Amino acid sequence: MRHLCKLFINELIDAIMTNMSEDMIQKVITEKSRDTWWQDSERKVVDKYGNIFNPKNLDKLTKEDFKSFLLFRNNLHWVGINRQSNIISSDMEKLTRYLKELLNEDIPIQERLEKLLDRNNSLYIKGLGRAVLTPILLVVYPKKYGVWNSKSEEALKMLNIFPDFKSKDSFSTRYLKVNDVLTELASRYQISLWNLDGVFGEIVDRSPFGRFETKSEEEVIEEEAEEHGITDVAAFGMEKHLEDFIIDNWDKTVFGKQYMLLEKEGDIESQQYQTTVGPIDILAKSRDDSEYLIIELKKGRTSDAVVGQILRYISWVKENLANGKSVKGVVIVLESDEKLKYSLKGLSNISLYTYEVNFKLNRKDVNS
Hints:
Elements: H1 2-19, H2 24-32, H3 36-52, H4 63-69, H5 72-75, H6 85-88, H7 92-102, H8 109-116, H9 130-140, H10 150-158, H11 171-189, H12 193-203, H13 217-227, H14 233-248, E1 259-261, E2 263-264, E3 267-268, E4 271-273, E5 280-286, E6 291-297, H15 303-322, E7 326-333, H16 338-344, E8 350-354
Parallel strand pairs: 6-7, 7-8
Antiparallel strand pairs: 1-5, 2-3, 4-5, 5-6
Helix pairs in contact: 1-11, 2-12, 3-9, 8-11, 10-12
């Protein structure tokens, strides 16, 4: 059956590439194969993290090593996969057992994925889905497993070669179908699965090329603040961490009882939810499936800017996701001001919340 499936994939790719006026994949390869990222990034990342995640070394895996892989400045490839790093690594003993199962080539990959993505299985880890586990598979087995994330899915759909899924297909079945396409493309163009994922990034305008030089977290925050026209960098940085805190502790927040985070293929999609009008800080859905909730943190923006943004997101969700369901908004700020209050007056579907920062130092006796 798998052999027949691969034959069909080969015929499909042949037909699509023959009818394309321009081979987008080959074009990117021709333009970018001399780029520093293309030449050096795979060796640097696979050599380091392929060794760290090698099944023989997993008993020595530290939380710091795992979380470092999720940062773009270290993986040189995947942006944003660190968002649920605290949730994923909260129990390192369990994470180690999960990774041993994931990377055990004595067990068929489909069987491994079926087990690990089963919410009722003792090894299931919330937030550890395709966006994180497939890059780990790639760095450990770089010739065998490709990356399936929103970027590669979007590129394959643009190329009209994304595989068809049946409604009953499990995550493992879907990944195998995607991976068959990825491995066939890598073979056809004689490039690595690593570089193929870079090609996909270029096709969908989320390219790693030209981003080989790494930056500190402070530099990234300053750049993001500047990009959004924000002058209060301190507030922007603090509220970026608050966003992570809300996601990590969702069920304990005032929203957790009524609303749940959005998940897809094991990934938490609620944080920085991508829309055509910008990323929503947090998007959640009511547990009775009757309502969407949009949460925006002010992050140093002007009152007019944050209100205008959340109204834009509400309109987008109503038009693209809600299907008649109610859509509400929440703005979270450290301190409210008159401009913000007046901006929200009359908008019954948007609520205002403030937050407090509690900071306490406890002295410890190091001699006891």
